[in-house]
Amino acid sequence: MTPFGEEIRRLRAERGITQKQMAQAIGVSPAYLSALEHGHRGQPSWEMLQRIIGFFNVIWDDAEELQRLAALSHPRVTIDTAGLSAEATEFANSLSMWIGKLKRGDIRQLQETLDSATKDRKR
Description:
The chain contains 7 helices and no strands.
């Protein structure tokens, strides 16, 4: 599951909306919506994201959060460390080997460390 898919599922459940109902309203198949929620589809297009935001009729801050989550929801990530330090390459490879075995708490802790280390830098 992706952060975006998890949020879409939460919003649907909160409002008592089925996948079939939402899919019909935004003009996609229920299978596509299911794949998007489960992380079997990549980041939605800008147009699709706008349809989803419109469907849920969310306020500005919530729309920005959906956009942020969509940007962080590529289910197959590639990290290019060409030109970076040996430590960066080692870290990227270690993360790819161990990500599936880390507990949620460990992942949260790593994310907090990354957020803290990059908080003053622009993307």
